[in-house]
C-alpha cells in the first residue's frame, strides 16, 4: 500500500530571516515535497536543514515567480527525529507546504508514489510511466504504439492496431504472389527455352521450329555461300594483289573464275636504267656501276672514300685538280680542315682597351696561326655579361692569339671556348 502523506503549511512574515517550516517528530520521516509560493512580484527563497544536534546547512536558493508554486526538492528527503527544515525569503508573505509521512521502516518496499518525480494521478489498468520534461516528472499514461497498419498492392492490410496482412495472387496484368502451380511450370522451363522457331537468311538455312537444323549453302559464281576446300587451295595459291591476265586462251573465261581456274603468271620483266633485265619469265636483274656522268651502284672503295669526308666539307679546287670536275673531286681527294677546340679560356675585365670607339681584348693560344679561323663561343655562365657588353661577331687571328671586340667594356670576367679551324 502506498504511503499516506500529511501536509504542513507555514506562512513566513519576516524578511530575510530563517523560519522553521517543519520539525521531524518520528525517528523515520520521509519528506516528499517542499513547495514555496509568493503572492506578488518575485522573490528569492533559501531552504536550509538543521540535523538534530547539528548546525544549519543551506540546501539551495530558489527564484520565485508571482503566485507560482515551486518544488525545491526532486527526491524523497529522509529525516530523523529532531531534524528541522527552515526557509527564509527576501519578500513576505511567503507560504511553504511540506508533504511528509512518519514512522516508516525504510523507503524500500514503498509505492513509487513516495518519489517526488512520480505522479500516478488518474492511473488506469495497462498504463505505463512516461517522462514529462515540462513537469520534470514521470506520469501515468496509456502506452504509445501502432494504431493502424496499411498496405500497398499487392500487400493488403485489414487496418487497425492488430491488422491481418496478406498478399494478392499474381495475374498476367498485376504483380502478386506466385502459386505453387506457376512455380512448378517455371521450374520445368529450360533457361532460354522461350524461342518458338529459328529461321535463316541466305546463305544460312534453317529447318525451323524450336530445334532447327542450321546449314549454309555452297558458294557459286552468282551467289554467296561456303567455300570448298578445293577453292581455298586455289585461293591460297594466288599471290596478294595478283591481277587477271587475259590471253587468247581465256577469251571464254570471265570474272573471279579466271583467278580460281588459273593463277596469274608474269610473262616478262624489264628494267629502267641503271636497272637492267635479261627479260622473260625468269629474268636476270642487275644494276650498272655509277660513273661521273650516270647514276648507278657505288663501289666499296667509293663508299670508303665518301665515309672519310666530314659532313658539310667543301671542294677546294687547286692547280693539281684542274682536270678533275664534279663529284669526282670529292671521291678522289677529300678536302677536310682540321679543328682544335680549346675550352676554359678567360678574359679579365682589365684586359679590355678602347680602340677607335670599340673595346678589344686578346686571347692567346699556341694552336692559332695567321691563317686560322677562330670561332669564339661564350660559356653559359658568361651569357649575361656578354649580352650587356654587346660582344661583336668579328675576330682577328694572329700567330698565337686572336682578338675579340665589344661595344661596351664587360663588367666581369668572361669564359669562352675556342674552335680553331686550320687548312
In percent, how much strand structure appears in the residues? Answer: 25-35%
- Assembly type of the chains comes to single chain
Binned, the helix content reads under 10%
Q: Radius of gyration from the CA trace?
A: 62 Å
Largest sheet, strands/sense/barrel: 5 strands, antiparallel
Question: Which structural class do you get from the secondary structure elements?
Answer: mainly beta
* CATH fold-level label of the domain at 6-114: Jelly Rolls
Summarize the structure in short:
The protein is built from 6 helices and 25 strands. The protein is mostly beta strands. The radius of gyration is 62 Å and the shape is flat.
Question: How would you sum up this structure, described in words?
Answer:
By secondary structure, the chain is mainly beta. Among the domains are: 6-114, Sandwich (Jelly Rolls); 338-422, no CATH class. The chain has six helices and 25 strands. It has helices at residues 180-187, 229-236, 257-261, 300-307, 328-332, 383-389, and strands at 6-12, 19-23, 29-38, 43-50, 56-64, 70-71, 77-79, 84-89, 94-102, 118-119, 128-132, 137-141, 155-157, 165-167, 204-206, 214-216, 275-277, 285-287, 338-347, 353-355, 358-364, 373-378, 391-398, 401-406, 414-422. Strands 1, 3, 6, 7 and 9 form a five-stranded antiparallel β-sheet that branches. A four-stranded antiparallel β-sheet has the order 2-8-4-5, with no helix packed on it. It has a four-stranded antiparallel β-sheet with strand order 20-21-24-23. The protein starts with 5 loop residues before the first strand and ends with a strand. The model has no long low-confidence stretch (mean pLDDT 84).
